[in-house]
Each structure stands twice: as structure tokens, then as C-alpha cells.
Amino acid sequence: MKNKLPYTGINYYGFELTKADFIVRNERYKTETTKTSRMSVQFFFIKSGSGKIQINNQEYVLRKGSVLWLFSYHVYHFVEIYEEIQAITFELSLNVLMLSSLTTRSVEQHMNFFEYWDTPVLECEEADFSYVLTIFNHALKEYEQQERLYDVSLLADLYQVIVWFERTARHHWNREKPIREISSKILLYLHFHYREELLLNEIAAKFKSTPQTINRGLKKLTGKTFGENLIEVRINNALAMLKFEELDIAFIADFIGYRSVPSFNKQFKAMTGYSPTEMKQIRSSDKKINSFRFQNSLPFEIYTYINQHYSEPISLQTAAKYFYSSPTKIDQIVLDEFSMTFNALVEYNRMLFARSLLLSSSKKISDIAEACGYRSIRTFNRNFLTFWGNTPRKYKELLTMKKK
Length: 404
Fold this sequence. Notes:
Elements: E1 11-12, E2 15-16, E3 22-29, E4 41-55, E5 58-62, E6 66-70, E7 76-92, H1 94-103, H2 105-113, E8 121-123, H3 126-145, H4 150-175, H5 177-193, H6 200-206, H7 211-222, H8 226-241, H9 249-255, H10 261-272, H11 276-284, H12 298-309, H13 316-322, H14 327-338, H15 342-360, H16 365-371, H17 377-388, H18 392-403
Antiparallel strand pairs: 1-2, 3-7, 4-5, 4-6, 4-7, 6-8
InterPro entries: Homeodomain-like_sf, HTH-like, HTH_AraC, HTH_AraC-typ_CS
Pfam family, one: HTH_18
Keywords: DNA-binding, Transcription, Transcription regulation
């Protein structure tokens, strides 16, 4: 009779999984925790209790039925515990996810989806709670008993969690599509009208929405409210205008919609870390400054990247490299969110800033073209004519005549 060989784990496509690749356990959280990140993939299922967790500087409310999917790039900690949290954690090495990617299309589809929407926390509907709890309880039992082929069983549990998470995320994505569309339109509207006195109630009426819906949609997509987004648009325009020494701080503040210079100075420093005067000195000495970015949604991080680098020779390829993605995916993300390609969105931002500089500065059109990222005055004139309906020179003449 042959000796029975010991079970050593899965070996598939060159990946060998061992006991160290799976950890499933019960956890309790009674107080806030310190920041941590792990070189692994983690699922949390909240069985009971409530509190708040901060993930990459974004706060999420946790309650019974919350499910978290955290990767190695997530830095997290519990910031508040309202009621003791009891959870089952399912921790996997990166090898497990790589193996899963080879053996199921669900993981690949999920990863593609989350390049569009990075939300690591989802809520179980009441009807799903028992189903998800059963999966996690089964994984916990398999891990504790570790009978033969337990790792195969744990992989099966993993697939079920991934499929549930991806389907639930898509459901939320589709359900909130109208809100996202309104939010995108409002953000673009701010770029045309930031000089005006924009009141949230009036904007809500204009877009046939409510202030609460607008703030919720913008907060979800950009991490900022309507008012905070308006400040960012104005400060970005101020940054563009500070390139021209002839424009003093008071003029810039008034031009971008501030009626108070101290208020402008305060918000400018809060956003950039410098006062407008300090920024003028930095710009004049060609020193680089740290950029500020949205922290929540990849489409709007791309939007902010364009917004802050439009004066440089950026391209779809440079953006893909910046976001560790492919040009095709970056273009598709922008197209899905803003209904225009990456290059069209770059052109859109350059034209808006060109208009601001044209109206506020007496600089030569060639200087404005260069400040907006154009290396050819002919290209700038042609694009300006296509976008605004007149050449830069004619556009300014017409506006000057209207003022008179």
C-alpha cells in the first residue's frame, strides 16, 4: 500500500499557495486604532457595531453589514467607535489575487471597474446580509479546521465575495449615474461663471435639482462640496493669472470673484500653502510647487491633473504614466465621465484659462498662448477661433466695445 502524500496546497500556473496566504479571523474593535497598511488584500465584514474608518484620508461610516475591500495601497485606521465593532476579516496574500485573476473573469472585470470608481466600502442590503455573513462564516470555519483542500474552498468563498462586491458596486454606480452627470455639468459650469456670485440655491434651481443632491454628488465624486469646488476653480484661475507681473493681487482677487482681498489671501494660502505674494515670488523664480489633488475619484483626479498642468506639454501618454495606467483606459475614463476625450478636456481647460488671461491681461497674445501650454501661436489662434467663435484679438476687441 502506497504512503499517503502530505497535502501541500494549490499549485496552479506556477503559483503555489500555502497556509501563510490565507488568514481568516474574528476581530473586535473597541477604540480607535493607529494607521496601518499591509502588503496583502483584506476583506472586512462588519457583523455588528458601528463607527468610522479613515482610508487614505477619506472617512467612511461603518455599520452592521458594511463590507470593506482593502489593498496594499490603502492606509487605514478606525477613527471613532460608536458601538463595539465585531467583524470577520479575510486576509489574502497578493499571490491569491494573482491566482484568482487567472482563474476567473470576475476579478479582472472588477479591477477594470474600480479604475473608474475607487470606493472600498459598500453596504449590504438587508436581503443580502445573511448571504454575505454565511460566506464569511464558512471561510472562518474552513480556516480554523484546515481540512484537506481547505484552500480551494477558501478560493471559492473569495470568488463569491468578489462577485457580490462587484455587482453591488455596479448597482450603486448605475443608480447614481444621474447625480454624477449633474455634478459633472455643474463643475464645468463653474469654470464659465466663477467670476459671478454663484449661490447654491440658484444653481440647484437652474439644474432642476436640490442643494443637498448637488453637494452629495460633488462630495462623492470630488471629495468637496459645491462651495469648496468653486473656491478651487477660482484659486486655479488665480494661479494662472499670477504668471503676469502686471496684475496686482487686488485686481486678481476682484477678477476671480472675491470682494475681499483678505478672504482671497486666506483661501489661497489654505489651498496652496503659500500667500499670493509668496506664490508670485516662487513663480518668478521658476521654482516647482507641490500640487494639490482630489482624494476620492479617479475621473476627477485626472480632471485636476489637467487643471493644474494645462500650461505644460501634457498628453494622454504623460497622464497614463502619471496615473500608472494605459492611455486607452485614461481616455475611456474621461470620456465616460465628461463626454469628451482626454485631449478635448485639455483643450477645454486651456481655452477657459486663455479667456481669463485675455480679459485680465494686456500681455501679447503670444505670451498668453505660451502660458496656456501652446507652443505655436497659429495653433492657439485656430483653436481659440473654433472654441469661442472669434480670434483672440477680435474676441477682446468685441468685449472692450461692449464695456464702452
